[in-house]
Amino acid sequence: MIACTNCGKVETIVKAGFIRGKQRLFCKGCELYFTINPPNAASNKKSHQTTIVDIAKVLGISPSTVSRALNNSSEINENTRQEIIRVANELDYRPNLLAQSLHRGETHTIGVVIPDIQRPFFAGVVAGIQKVASEAGYRVMICQSNESHSTETLNVQALMASRVDGLLISHTKETNSFEHIKLHLKKGVPIVHFDRVCEELETAKVIQEDFEGSFALVEHLIQQGCKRIAACAGPVDLLISQKRMAGYKAALEKYGLTIDQNLIFHSDFKEEDTLSALNQWLEMPNRPDGIFNVHYANAIEMIMALKQKKILIPEEIALAAFGDDLLASMIEPSLTVYNQFPFTIGQEAASILIDNIINKENFVPYTKVIKGKLIVRKSSKKN
């Protein structure tokens, strides 16, 4: 029994809710409000998330009644429901969203696996994904594979263990086995690929104009008067690199220019590889007068190196590259690029995945191509 701290009476004490986690009491005899610490307060200083059991104990009712009231069940009297809500607010009750979601068989969470979050392209994609997902009421869990196939596999396992409703993925440059994706596809998990896709899997895909964009860049260099155009490509087995190199070769063939294998270098996108290729080309007796890069960051590295060597851009060597970001427009000379619109890629990928999640039984996978844009800047503009 609890006695009033003022008059000492017990029979006049009634409960009056909670304040800052403490039981609030009222003495009807002397009209005094006062609080007491909850039992074992000293041992409970660690944060404790209020549960429906805690609410039920305060009100002297069953946890099932509390649960039904908080879920707006018509079985619960309105006055009872309002009192339960009042106590829940005073106890700072927060529903366990994960438990509720698992009970419904969904989490309203999307998993995303990307190779490198530091690359502006993938940061832009994630921003697009986040915007669409948030507007649709989905949370986003992002994992980075660091261009490692084993890390990518572990990321997928972790996201599936977290019961994501669907998966968005862009593969690493070393991924050539897709068993970790096939496993979950067989289980009916909605999966959408973007950028670096796997064509052997029956999933929806969001891609950019790899062939068309590269063709446009090389054609532009040719129209500026370039006759010997080198190509700094990506890994030989990387699908997007293959498509971009196909565009490069098609443009040369259209204008009757020779495809010189000595002017084609397959890199790992590393700066040291890129600069090694550049130095080899510059030592040729008939060096290139134009360079096409499948990745704009490598072109920026080349521009910096050429400036140090006092080689005029674009007068002696013109450059153009696939992809764009703020640095490409700010460097001097500014870089001619083919903009992929990564934010739009992210938006489309998220929209398709959510459609797949909602209409799982009737969804038919398809490929969405995001149109890009040739942006001509100083690094290539001779005329």
TrEMBL record:
InterPro entries: HTH_LacI, LacI/GalR-like_sensor, Lambda_DNA-bd_dom_sf, Peripla_BP_I. Keywords: DNA-binding, Transcription, Transcription regulation. It comes from the Bacteria. PROSITE patterns: HTH_LACI_2. Residues 50-104 form the HTH lacI-type domain. The keyword Transcription applies. Transmembrane segments: none annotated. The keyword Plastid does not apply. Pfam families: LacI, Peripla_BP_3. This is Transcriptional regulator, LacI family. It comes from Emticicia oligotrophica (strain DSM 17448 / CIP 109782 / MTCC 6937 / GPTSA100-15).
